[in-house]
């Protein structure tokens, strides 16, 4: 009986660990999003994280007859990337992101985590390219 309880406990712990990894650390998708950067802020009570918002081109709405701008909410883990974005307020940017199935408090509020900047469109029309 003691062996059964031990094995059952091990199996349950392994299943919970697999679920936790899949839910919070498995990269569901990666991609590039572009639009006008609205803001990037550092906020939080216990865990200070960088959170940002970007307005994407086009309009869409879940309700027929209504207009709504496409907003891309994201988190930034890398402080260097966050500082570059803070200095690029309201400019057109292209960001590479990873999407997770769930958020973690120390990673940010959003499931979308920006890990690099592809380009920042300057006011003069030129784009600054960043190596990946």
In short:
This protein has about 130 residues and is of the alpha+beta class. The chain is about 25% helix and about 45% strand. It is elongated, with a radius of gyration of 20 Å.
Supply the CATH architecture.
Beta Barrel
Discrete helix count: 2
Mean pLDDT comes to 87
Identify the strand order in the major beta sheet.
1-2-3-5-4
Shape assignment: elongated
Q: Main β-sheet, in a few words?
A: 5 strands, mixed, barrel
- What share of the residues lie within helices? 10-25%
Radius of gyration: 20 Å
H-E string: HEEEHEEE
CATH class: Mainly Beta
Strand content: 35-45%
Total beta strand runs: 6
Secondary structure class reads alpha+beta
Structural topology:
Blueprint: H1 2-24, E1 27-43, E2 49-59, E3 69-76, H2 79-86, E4 92-100, E5 112-121, E6 127-129
Parallel strand pairs: 3-5
Antiparallel strand pairs: 1-2, 1-4, 2-3, 4-5, 5-6
Keywords: Membrane, Transmembrane, Transmembrane helix
Organism: Dinghuibacter silviterrae
Transmembrane segments: 7-28
Description of the structure:
This protein is an alpha+beta fold and 132 residues long. It has a single domain, classed as OB fold (Dihydrolipoamide Acetyltransferase, E2P). A hairpin with a 5-residue loop joins strand 5 and strand 6. The protein is elongated and about 70 Å long. 17% of the residues are buried. The model has no long low-confidence stretch (mean pLDDT 87). This is 6-phosphogluconate dehydrogenase. Keywords: Membrane, Transmembrane, Transmembrane helix.
Tag the structure with descriptive keywords.
132 residues; alpha+beta; OB fold (Dihydrolipoamide Acetyltransferase, E2P); five-stranded mixed beta barrel; 2 helices; 23% helix
């Amino acid at each position: 009986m003691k062996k059964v309880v031990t094995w059952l406990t091990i199996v349950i712990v392994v299943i919970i660990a697999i679920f936790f990894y899949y839910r919070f650390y498995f990269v569901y998708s990666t991609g590039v999003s572009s639009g006008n950067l609205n803001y990037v802020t550092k906020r939080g009570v216990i865990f200070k994280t960088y959170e940002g918002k970007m307005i994407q081109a086009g309009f869409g709405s879940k309700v027929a007859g209504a207009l709504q701008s496409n907003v891309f909410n994201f988190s930034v883990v890398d402080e260097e990337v966050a500082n570059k974005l803070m200095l690029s307020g309201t400019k057109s940017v292209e960001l590479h992101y990873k999407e997770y199935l769930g958020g973690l408090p120390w990673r940010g509020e959003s499931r979308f985590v920006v890990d690099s900047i592809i380009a920042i469109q300057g006011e003069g029309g030129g784009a600054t390219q960043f190596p990946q």
